# Entry
Amino acid sequence: MVGPGEYICDVTEGITRVEDLPKPKLVQHSRNFKHRLCPDCQHSAYRLRICTRRLHDLGDPLGVRPCDLVITHSQHRCPKCNRYFNADMEDLAMPRSHYTHRVVALAVRLVVEDGLPYRSASWHLWRDHRVFVPWATIQNWVEATGEKS
Ligand SMILES: [Zn+2]
# Structure
């Protein structure tokens, strides 16, 4: 019988190839619009095409699977200044980031508040939150935070 406090190793312990890890649960989001205002000149810009972006989020704490957001979003071209831009997604993640704000914030807290080394923080994020973040990426995030303060 397994009692409280008994050590049970993580089900993914020993897996060395990313493709062998549990497949992520996909959560759909939409940021798809016919028109958006150009961030440079405020002119109305029509939709040029529809794209998708994938973001790694915190996984289901009760399950073993990671969680990815799949964002269907519009890309626009401003007819006045010719700028190309995506529909705003900065409530979910920084531009060009592969991770949500929640993942970045938690990773930085593990290092800054809890004093975990980068490699331990990386393992903690996977074991307890089912999001795989290379430790060097966590280091970049923490160093970026340090530059701002
Ligand atoms: Zn413009």
